[in-house]
Amino acid sequence: MIQCSKTGMYYARGQWVPADEQAAAALAAQGFTAEQVDKAREGTIAWGILQAHNHSGDAEALKLKFDAMASHDITFVGIVQTARASGMIRFPMPYVLTNCHNSLCAVGGTINEDDHVFGLSAAKKYGGIYVPPHMAVIHQYMREMHAGCGKMILGSDSHTRYGALGTMAIGEGGGELAKQLLGRTYDVARPGVVAVYLTGAPVPGVGPQDVALAIIGAVFKNGYVKNKVMEFIGPGVASLPLEYRSGVDVMTTETTCLSSIWVTDEATRKYLAVHGREADYKPLAPAELAYYDGVVTVELDKVRPMIALPMHPSNVYTIEELNANLADILHKCEEDCRALVGNDKVHLDLVSKIENGRLRVDQGVIAGCAGGTYSNICEAAQILKGHTGGCGEYALSVYPSSQPTMMALSRLGILTDLMASGATIRTAFCGPCFGAGDVPANGALSIRHTTRNFPSREGAKPGAGQIAGVALMDARSIAATTRAGGILTPATDIDYAPNVPEYEFDRSSYDARVYFGYGKGNCDEALRLGPNIKDWPAIDPMGDNLLLRVASYITDPVTTTDELIPSGETSSYRSNPLGLAEFTLSRKDPAYVGRAKEIRDLEAGRKAGQADGALLAQVQAVPGCENLTWKDLAIGSTIYAVKPGDGSAREQAASCQRVLGAAANIAVEYATKRYRSNLINWGMVPFQLEGPTPFGLGDWVLVPGIRAALESGAIQDIPAWVLGSEPRAFTLHIAPLTADERQILLDGCLINYYKH
Fold first, then answer.
1. E strands in 615-727
2. Global pTM?
3. CA pair distance 208, 529, nearest whole angstrom
4. H helices of 652-738, where?
5. Cα-based angle 585, 588, 594 (whole degrees, multiple of 5)
6. What is the pLDDT averaged over residues 709-737?
7. Is the Cβ–Cβ distance between 588 and 551 less than 8 Å?
8. DSSP conformation class of 164
9. Contact 748, 539 (CB under 8 A)
10. CATH number of the domain residue 633 falls in
11. φ, ψ for residue 651 (rounded to 5)?
């Protein structure tokens, strides 16, 4: 079904040539010159788009400027506040502020709607585009209104992916968007490019989520595409309608790739034409000779309905395989969940859901940028028509991804058919993807065509004795399961012929309610600041010598951003840095906040001349540090994690640590570039450690001369010491930093950097 090449590969006039010792001869036999082979990396679609947006003059060290940006109401307040504090006077590009995450306005009094009012006032003041609540989820709006062939879009949401429309899109932390608003660049080493070579065509009942989950299962754990661009090519692309491609594309985030891009064709042109933007079409394809760092071959005709069991999108099985080995697979999943949640008071019981050899689920949800598209909902309605999920515990909710999508479905009677089958229809909302919508009962298993199924992504609170699980599935198999009354059923078991009526885009709802203010900023407009919207607290520059105390020690193989700062109800506080910081690591290490505050208080005491003499004596016992005084030191907290930062792009996973006094992370590796970038933009040193960990929770770690090391760029072998009765030496390192990144760390954070 899916195979990954063991070497780089040349794509030579539609044929694959392994990049081995025979490659030169094989390519020469096809008429390619040595010069063409040397430049084969330039033959990918990704190369052309990246270089067209590169302002560095160096093809290997990119400085990118984007054509448009997008944020939602969890992130745009902090981004605008950061850019405003750094001197922004206008939005220099189309910047779309959507309101699809906190749109329920259900938690925290007025604070969600206060953020929306702030967003509209910012769009008026700086010249932005404001999409009111319930109008569209962020990525559907960008597909409909902004993505186009050869463009690049930056978003403050990790699922910023519009590759199927010929747009290279990247999800990043808010600091990177603030840089763009200030006319700066997105700096990154030229990424590798991996081809995703599609052949065949999906069988009826197999949807985009099935293809996406199969790919994630093949490449996530081995890091095959980590921080690379996934370039979708091959004859199988033509078999996929454009929305189907987008459904696969948006899930590439879960592979930890940097971005994605697809070949474009008549389906791409038609989609853009239907949306009134045919001028944004141009053909994109690899050159006659292109070099790829790897190839993922996907035989679409062999993909079968998939399920990603709790609690990660890579925990993938075919539904057929799961049904054949239910007890064993579910028991293993239970044990994995127990270890991941780390709370002996709660236990996700899945085995008890087996009835007569089949799995009973408790809830179905089709929603968001992945699930709530027109074609997904059409096919789900077709499978379900004339059937219901019954009047028991099982329930199905459907969230069309935009008002134009809902209008088309309504016009054709498809929503009526779904409601007649017992489904409830909701407005455009991202809540089911992060735990703020359709929260199931304790112990329940929810099947969802959404983007993630991390712990608590369904809204449960294990710390409060609650646990539930999400399994990711395609809308078609969710409909088939609903039709079976909640008994897990692949859509391929249903005899139906997919029939999706032609889509007609009606933008009248946008014209009536969206504020189109790009290029129309009015500096005299006042920002509307609700009582929960707070400025960032002052942050000090990097000290000469860093004294760190380990405030959390996490040994899980991967730590998600959801565990670093929980999603769900905490999103209401994301305009209040200190308020949100109270939730940091609350589900993974509830004592972290208290420990971090104690360390922050020690730093305040140090600056006030009230520091601990015994601790200073331990510092002075380190060779070469005998003459250090408290004035030569800066105290901060740190967390240790094996591989932190998988998942969301939201910068608060880093900024919440920073406002609590954190000065660094120490990790074996970082799960994503965006989390490491967030650390840097908030002035937290992204240390890495090889070999055994020489410290534990509560230990003090001294990094002498850290400022000088950053200034000189000598960051590969950084001496460090674990303090105690006898100091113990070890070595840290930092992966390569740009000159700007080093200066941001020295200045203490991005805001300070721009002030300077």
1. 633-641, 644-646, 662-667, 685-688, 700-703, 718-722
2. 0.91
3. 41
4. 652-659, 673-681, 706-712
5. 50
6. 95
7. no
8. G
9. yes
10. 3.20.19.10
11. -70, -20
The alpha carbon of 184 is separated from its chain's Cα centroid by a whole number of angstroms, namely: 22
- What is the per-residue pLDDT for 592? 97
Return the closest-CA partner of residue 134 out of 445, 402, 360, 506.
402
Answer for the pair 400, 406: CB distance below 8 angstroms, yes or no. Answer: yes
Which tokens in the block code for residue 280?
């944004």
Is the bond preceding 230 in cis, omega lying within 30 degrees of 0? no
Tokens 């991967």 identify what position? 558
Same domain, 214 and 293: yes
Question: Does residue 310 share a domain with residue 270?
Answer: no
Of 140 and 558, the structure prediction assigns the larger pLDDT to: 140
Using left for φ > 0, alpha for ψ between -120 and 50, and beta otherwise, residue 386 falls in: left
Q: Show the tokens assigned to 357.
A: 């050899």
Where residue 87 falls (left for φ over 0; alpha for ψ -120 to 50; beta otherwise) is: left
| Res. 627 pLDDT band, cuts 50 70 90 | very high
Q: Prior bond to 69 cis, omega within 30?
A: no
Q: Are residues 237 and 177 in the same domain?
A: no
CATH number of the domain residue 362 falls in: 3.30.499.10
Same domain? 147 vs 204 = no
Contact of 480 with 213, CB cutoff 8 Å: no
Which residue's entry shows tokens 């079904």? 1
Tell me, yes or no, whether 724 and 676 share the same domain: yes
- Residues 735, 740, 743, 747, Cα dihedral to 10°: -120
pLDDT digits 0-9 by tens, 360-396:
999 999 999 999 999 999 999 999 999 999 999 999 9
In-domain check, residue 535: no
Q: Strand pairing partners for 6?
A: none
Which amino acid type is present at position 379?
A: E
Give the domain-ending residue among 184, 204, 220: 184
Q: Terminus-to-terminus CA distance in the chain, angstroms? A: 54
Indicate whether 660 and 610 sit together in one domain: yes
Structural domain count of the chain: 4
Phi-psi region of 183 (alpha: psi -120 to 50; beta: other; left: phi over 0): left
Does the pLDDT value for residue 107 go beyond 70? no
- For residues 89 and 227, membership in a common domain is answered with no
Q: At 697, phi and psi to the nearest 5?
A: -60, 130
Query: What's the mean pLDDT when you consider all of the chain?
Result: 94
CB-neighbour burial class of residue 697 (10 A; exposed 0-12, middle 13-18, buried 19+): middle
Q: HEC profile for 82-148?
A: HHHHCCCCCCCCCEEEECCCCCCCCCCCCHHHHHHHHHHHHHHHHCCEEECCCCECHHHHHHHHCCC
Last residue of a domain, one of 184, 201, 217: 184
Q: What are the tokens at 724?
A: 């105690």
Backbone angles phi, psi at 655, to 5 degrees: -65, -30
Q: Beta strand 358-359 with 354-355: parallel, antiparallel or unpaired? A: antiparallel
Question: What token pair was written down for 555?
Answer: 């040994």
The total of other beta-carbon atoms located within 10 Å of residue 725's CB is: 6
Question: In the numeric block, which tokens belong to residue 180?
Answer: 């763009």
Inside any domain, residue 529: no
Which of 45-49, 453-457, 745-749 has the weakest average pLDDT?
Answer: 453-457
CA angle 547, 550, 553 (to 5 degrees): 155
Residue among 662, 631, 632, 628 nearest 644 (CA): 662
Does residue 43 lie within any of the structural domains? yes
What is the domain range of residue 102?
66-184
Cα separations (Å) of 299 from 202, 255, 296, 612? Answer: 9, 18, 10, 64
Neighbours of 6 (CB within 10 A): 10
| Together in a domain, 135 and 226 | no
Coil/strand/helix, residue 578: helix
Structural domain includes residue 351:
yes
